[in-house]
Amino acid sequence: MSQDAIVHGVEWTVKELFVYPNEFIYWSIQIVMYPYMTGLVAGAFVLSSLYHVFGQKDLKEIAQFSLVFSLALLPVAALPLLLHLQQPLRAMEPLLTPHFTSAIAAFGIVFTVYGLIVVSEIWFIYREYFVHQLEALRGVPGFWNAQRRIAYTVLTYGARDVSEEAVIVDHKAAKILAAIGIPVACFLHGYAGFIFGSVKANALWMSPLMPVIFIMSAVVSGIALCMLTYIVIMEWQAFRKRRQGGAQAAGDLKGAEKEIISKASRYLLGFLIAAISLELLDLIFRGYTAMKSWDILRSVMYGKDFINIFVLQYTLGNLVPFVLLILPGRTIKRTVVALLLVLFGVFMMRWNVVIGGQAFSLSFAGYMHYHIPVIPHSLETFKEGVFGALTVIATPFVLFWLINKFVPSLRRDIGEV
Amino acid sequence: MSCSRRDFLKDAVSGAAATVLPLSAFTFLTTDEAKAAIAEATVRWAFLVDTTKCVGCGLCVKACKNENEIPYDAPVTRTWVERYVVTKDGRTLADSPNGGRDGFTTGTIRGEEIDPENVAKAFFVPKLCNQCDNPACVQVCPVGATYQTHDGVVLIDREWCIGCGYCIMACPYGVRFFHPEHKVADKCNFCYHRITKGMQPACVDSCAFGARRIANLRDPDDPVTQIITTERVAVLKDEYGTKPHVFYIGLDASVR
Hints:
The structure holds 2 protein chains of 2 kinds.
Chain A: E1 13-17, H1 29-52, H2 60-84, H3 93-96, H4 107-137, H5 143-156, H6 164-197, H7 210-252, H8 258-289, H9 294-304, H10 306-326, H11 332-354, E2 366-370, H12 379-383, H13 386-406
Antiparallel strand pairs in A: 1-2
Helix pairs in contact in A: 1-2, 1-6, 1-7, 1-11, 1-13, 2-4, 2-7, 2-13, 4-5, 4-6, 6-7, 7-8, 7-11, 8-10, 9-10, 10-11
Chain B: H1 5-23, H2 31-37, E1 45-50, H3 59-67, E2 80-87, E3 92-95, E4 108-109, E5 112-113, E6 119-127, H4 136-140, E7 146-148, E8 154-156, H5 166-170, E9 177-178, E10 185-186, H6 192-195, H7 202-206, E11 212-216, H8 223-230, E12 246-249
Parallel strand pairs in B: 1-12
Antiparallel strand pairs in B: 1-11, 2-3, 2-6, 4-5, 7-8, 9-10
């Protein structure tokens, strides 16, 4: 057989007992990454909106950062889908000929609407800063300064009025956009849950709770990632300041501030409790109603995937960070460990849904095991392997670094609302 | 008002173009095409599998792979044959190695030798796309690349499928797969290119035992339709609400 004629899924699927011939693990690591990254986007946005809409003042600093970080995460929510398509060059078709009975058809529209909201909110918050930058750069010599001036000229869109009234209007608009953004962000992710929850052929996925579970865990992971990145960046800046400028400069930057972190972790815990409750409700309900599929589901959940579900996801990913966050005398280091575990837990939840949902055959009489390709030997094993997933994980940080060059989300004096 | 010859010719040419171009959007249909296009279809394709006649030779799978250009050794197939063995001690064993392509020639299922004395019942079940009336695969296709024709067959547009795999996930029967060469979704279409020209599907033609037959449900005189409408037939997995159109004679509760 030629290299081209390899059946998608054969390389990482191992079948056990009676499985239909055409069944393979068609949705692999990139489809695990897709709801994971979308969840991070939605969660980051919700965290920023807690300040912008609900006026949680102590979240202010992390809110600016979360909003811009959510923009950096946004393209990466679509990237796994692109890497997963068998015909990536036809990726625009869902926008050209959307077939609206399909949940996926709405992706482009929801995604675009959400992207526009995030971009415009950022624009309204930072417009004043853009104009000031433009003024500061006027007449400054140097090639790169000229480039920056052009960039800021474009970014202002010609709206250079920075009078008090104009800025008030800006902030009002940002607030309204943040408010509209919350349901849209929830929709963006709840709908990722719907994609799975509405597949009636899949006994594990089919559940009306799926979208809600996805939203809750999305907010958990989004808050966790924002807190984590915020802590790391702040500590790094404080560390650098201490080394360069001595004690008085370090006084300006206190590192990750305790109040922000404790407030944000309270929200994190709230959403974590909601997510776990819903997941357990789903599990109990399946066991209690014991439909035809329960026998095979039980053997997967309590047998083959026990470590993945109950040890890695619920214990290590939920219970341990929960305890770490509520025990008194919390330190930054302990918080970082807890946040890493929360992120891992949500990832395992996505894994257990996507891969776990394909761990058993439609015949209910056989199993499929997923062996993720580590060392790629073809484009497909790169895209749908460990390195493809790592590419997806790394991209938002690169994008954030780039965006942050023009939109300084970490500076505390800019972007007051 | 004056009209030079030049102006007249210019206007005449553009006027003619403006009239003809929209008209070219219309096409003349042959009588058959016109008949096919109007709503009240005279054809609804269905399939009848008589499991009591199937001997598990695998010729249908071979014929299908050749006819529909599915790479012969690729572990995917548009149709396949399953073997079921229910033992006297109450176990159900099933297998379909290579989709049953090479026939079932030994009494071994996944390395386990089955004692013939212990067999309570054993039979073969050919499977293919059910051409559902309410197809889940068509519902979930984000670009409309898979669609249902007026005569009930679900087809795939290879030029438009993006290869997302949602239809594969949505099918409760596991009939869909990614074509190893075209890299798009693929499945049985009752050999649509044959049945629309008055021929039989390749698997039907190749079955020496009459276990597979195709029917037009809208034709009351069709002998296969008469069997479906007057005898006791069953369908697979009707609990999914897909309204499958492959009917089975002699289906057993152990069939998955």
